[in-house]
Amino acid sequence: MLFCVGAPIWRRPRSSTPRWPLRATACVSSLVKAIVDKHNALKKTAEGMPFADFTIENGNADSTAASLSDYVGKGKYVLVDFWASWCGPCRREIPVIREVWEKYRGDKFEVLGVAVWDKREDTLKAAADLGIEWAQILDAQGVPTDLYGI
Predict the structure, then answer these.
(1) Residue 107: band (very low, low, confident or very high) from pLDDT cuts 50, 70, 90
(2) pTM for this model (two decimals)
(3) Which end of the chain is less packed: N or C, by CB atoms within 10 Å?
(4) How many CB atoms sit inside 10 A of residue 132's CB?
(5) Please, are residues 99 and 74 in contact by the beta-carbon 8 Å criterion?
(6) How does pLDDT run across 8-20, given as a tens digit for each residue?
(7) What are phi and psi of 47, to 5 degrees?
(8) 3-class SS of residue 82
(9) How many CB atoms sit inside 10 A of residue 63's CB?
(10) Residues linked to residue 81 through DSSP beta bridges, in sequence order
């Protein structure tokens, strides 16, 4: 038996009378929609596809708007790191990203951090604590994760 938000989803009996509870049917529809949306996001942002742009109104450190296109699509390779201050694996990866950034940054390569699902002040504190010097888009929350199916 499957459960979705506390509503059991029963198998339809072999008889012609459907026994699907309304709540369960709505739940299945929501689940199917979520799967389709994720599939579409992954398809639109797959390797070889042009990047999908997004804008965060207070995304810069000075609280001005920041867009992915401010950094990407300018003729450079850009490593985009989606991270959060509370994410242990994200924090452990910062020294590796720093090493790559220090070795390759310049005319052809840059790193961009995008803080997702995090509080602005926590992101800024973590960036200072971890010595992050590359560009950051702050307060992105779920915008890029929804767009990119992350």
Answers:
(1) very high
(2) 0.75
(3) N
(4) 20
(5) no
(6) 444 445 555 555 5
(7) -50, 140
(8) strand
(9) 12
(10) 113
